[in-house]
Design goal:
globular, 39% helix, eight-stranded parallel beta barrel, NADP_OxRdtase_dom, TIM Barrel, alpha/beta, 12 strands, oxidoreductase activity, AKR, Oxidoreductase
């Protein structure tokens, strides 16, 4: 297993983190994701621990809180040896109060998460989404309160635009509030949008990057092809929310299969290894519903891609630059770059 610090902190985490979104059962849009019972959850967590995973991720909204409850039970006495991240902001009940990032909801949900996880503190508390109806200052002050009370050790954001996160950090610094130390984002070989604004911001602010859905909902596992675009039991059958060009995606999968054959690896392992090669990535959230699937994905930490293979993947998946990024790239001053070594 590989390890690193969470952003500019002293908190050491494994570079492959266990995502517990599959824990629990339910109906609706995520029924295909919530499919792991407690016994299998125990085996998955034990397998992750045996492989050296020290970072576990969940959310209050996953399977109506079942994910947190089951993760807490599965960790048991190991809780003191690991880092637990959970999230707040998504709807957790029918009443209007049970969603968003108000002080009321954040504190109430933090207390509920602590109870479900069977712990006295949350290592990393992430705001799961934006809340356009709550003043940013209210959200940030509530997070600072949790840190000062000892209920939370570190805070971060998930699925926020860079401008809002940057504004938040400015407010945190000005008011001497606890600062964001992590950003949980979607990032994969078929979704590199974060490289435009979010990654440069997090690097400048010393914020660690956690990647959700590094296999694009399972698409990059190699199970999907032009000939067989659907898998009845695959995650994409009910979690098809990630937009990307499928035709181009099949080209990416073909390249992953070609590289994988040279390493005795799987396409998924190569896709994960590519992300682990990105210096700005702290940890990848790897979920699973079966122990074998988890074990196969964790092997990605041992796959070493060559410079040529990384370059080939980079070239095939390079995202088109938005304005003003393309303008900035086109007006660089070569003389200054050469003189200053940038």
């Amino acid at each position: 297993m590989q390890y690193t610090r969470l952003g500019n902190t002293g908190l050491v985490v494994s570079r492959l983190a266990f995502g517990a979104m599959t824990f629990g059962s339910g109906q609706g849009a995520f029924a295909s994701v919530y499919k792991v019972g407690q016994e299998e959850a125990n085996r998955l967590v034990a397998g992750a621990l045996d492989a050296g995973v020290t970072f576990f991720n969940t959310a209050d909204a996953y399977a109506d809180g079942q994910s947190e409850e089951m993760l807490g039970r599965a960790l048991g006495s190991h809780r003191k040896d690991v880092v637990i991240a959970t999230k707040v902001g998504m709807r957790t009940g029918e009443a209007l109060l049970h969603a968003g990032l108000s002080r009321q909801h954040i504190i109430a949900q933090a207390q509920a998460s602590l109870k479900r996880l069977q712990t006295d503190y949350i290592d990393l508390y992430l705001v799961h989404c934006i809340d356009p109806y709550t003043p940013l200052e209210e959200t940030l002050e509530a997070l600072d309160y949790l840190v000062r009370q000892g209920m939370v050790r570190y805070i971060g954001f998930s699925n926020w635009p860079a401008w809002m996160a940057a504004k938040a950090v400015g407010l945190q610094q000005a008011n001497h509030w606890a600062q964001f130390r992590a950003a949980e984002v979607y990032y994969s070989l078929v979704g590199r949008d974060v490289e435009h604004e979010i990654v440069p911001f997090t690097r400048d602010a010393g914020i660690g990057v956690l990647v959700w859905s590094p296999l694009a909902g399972g698409f990059l596992s190699g199970k999907y092809s032009r000939e067989q675009p659907q898998q009845q039991e695959g995650r994409l059958s009910g979690f098809d929310i990630i937009p990307f060009n499928r035709e181009h995606g099949y080209d990416v999968v073909d390249l992953l299969k070609s590289i994988a054959s040279k390493h005795g690896a799987t396409p998924a392992q190569v896709a994960l290894a590519w992300l682990l090669s990105r210096r700005h990535v702290t940890s990848l959230l790897v979920g699973a519903s079966k122990v074998q699937q988890l074990e196969e994905n964790l092997v990605a930490a041992q796959v070493q891609l060559s410079a040529d293979e990384l370059a080939e993947l980079d070239k095939l998946t390079a995202p088109q630059q938005p304005y003003p990024n393309w303008f900035i790239a086109n007006v660089k001053d070569p003389a200054r770059e050469e003189a200053l070594g940038s």
